[in-house]
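seq as requested:
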Amino acid sequence: MTPAHPEKWPVQVVRGGVDRQLLKDCRDLLAAAEESDGNPSISEQTLVTMRSADTGSHTLLTLALYAPDEDSDPATGEDLAGFAVVIDEPDGTGVLEIAVHPSYRNQGVADRLVGALRESRGLDGLKAWSHGNHEAAADLAARYGFGPVRELWKMRMTTAGSRLPETALPEGVSLRPFLPGRDEDAWLAVNRAAFAHHPEQGSLTRADLEARMAEDWFDPAGFLLAEDRNGRLLGFHWTKVHPRHGQHPAIGEVYVVGVAPDAQGMGLGKALTVAGIRYLQDLGLHAVMLYTDADNAAAVALYRSLGFTRWDMDIMYGPLELGTA
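struct tokens:
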């Protein structure tokens, strides 16, 4: 029988890479949470960093709260009540994400993890993501003096009956799939330039790219590159397919669309977006989703014109004095 007093349960604090057992337990918890919520509890970048032995300039801190149970092995996924992950940057800022197993919610697990984090690292310089904008996350953030500072929309369209506009690539521009072992450096350069002011996408490294290429979902056929007659990369549309899990059917994603700064203004972004959606439609997927910042008016307008509507949102919380939503 599990004692219902999370404030007394010991917290395992891991600095740097996590071992195979803890990673498995975290992934099992995340699968259960996503089946329950329909949303991932932590971001892809955080999970990639946890999996990767090479975290680059980042510093990884993981706190795991196992529920003590005399009748079972304390190191199994079902007994991991919750975990928190902080990815710290060299400048002292960091991003916190917390996941709680559905069986242990409303028992103070997240509070216990934040309390342990305050003791082991402190909360200075932190911001925190709530994926799905849960009320419990908002209440937890408020208790520690945090408020909304960024809103990330999840938008969705059904593919059945969707009428995408007829768009043509600019003259002299052609599409081809990404070629592993050849296109990494060129893509990283264009991605860095296209997302120079984006806090996550623009900072992707070669290690980040290779970690994604090693994922089961990676398919270079759905990683579309636009190049001119001289073979210069002008832009890209990287699509993704989320496989079916439980009662949730497979869904496509406009993973990231980018255009080199000197190729903007000629309609390439819209043409790439439509080309990627058509690729996903041709796979027989019933729906396509994407993420975009709520204050990116141009992107929101484009996606709405293509038939996307707001489906859900993620909220980033930070100390209230840093800003408001």
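The chain is about 30% helix and 30% strand.
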